[in-house]
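Render this sequence as a predicted structure.
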Amino acid sequence: MKIEVLEKTPLSLKLYIEGISLHVLNSIRRAILAETSTMAIDYVIFIENSSAFYDEYVAHRLALIPLRSDDSLLRYKPPEECAEAGEKHLFPADCFAKFELVAEGPEEGELTVYSRDLVSTDPYVTPVYSDIPIVKLIRGQRIKLEAYARLGRGKEHIKWSPVSVAAHKYVPVITVNYENCSNCLKCVDACPKGVLKTFNESRVVVDENRVLDCHFCRLCENVCPSRAVKVSYKEGAYILKLEFTGALSPRNTLITASEILIKKLEEFELKLRELGVLE
């Protein structure tokens, strides 16, 4: 297997992966998207809310605020052990982190309540971004609430997913048949990603520095009158693009997803042995 890092930032990762089957890569992608746990607000108790927003609207906004979760995976019980407690309005400290929010509109103008105004009882579980607006208040309006966050998984609700984007695509291969090419340059003008360019102002060539930007729109193929341009893909090679919410670090996200897959495979093997399928 060959893996290259194409792009890497604190909140995104782009990998070139070769020598892996598509179903294995898709299993990794789905484990990241749907199986990896993070903290998110799941219950909100409104003590007072005279803002212009309904309780449900405010609760929805609170639930979608990413919370730092790197330390939570070992400090809080897994979702299976806590979901039922929340349904009974029980919020044990080993399952839930508590937030409080109290805000009141000013005498003049308006007050914007931000995610930084949430006060957490756990210093390790706080909003990733401090400037997410929650609600605006004017004179006479007040909001007071308690919110409870727990571990959950993206397959239960997307608010628990550690990534906002988890996608893969084929590695494009673009060839030009110069025996048929009339150098009309229509394909160069049509390509929205600038993958094709001119050499010596007359010859069409593929820009190897931008070929991975190709998204298989095939406009270059369609506009070529002599059908000299061909877009295909490289077998067994893929681009994996991940954009993280910040709830988990890229490292913890990838490690946790891999451990989850390994555990599932071990459980599958154990069941097969219990049934006598494997000896």
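Summary. Residues 115 and 272 are 48 Å apart (CA to CA). Residues 2-34+164-241 form a domain with the Gyrase A; domain 2 fold (CATH 3.30.1360.10).
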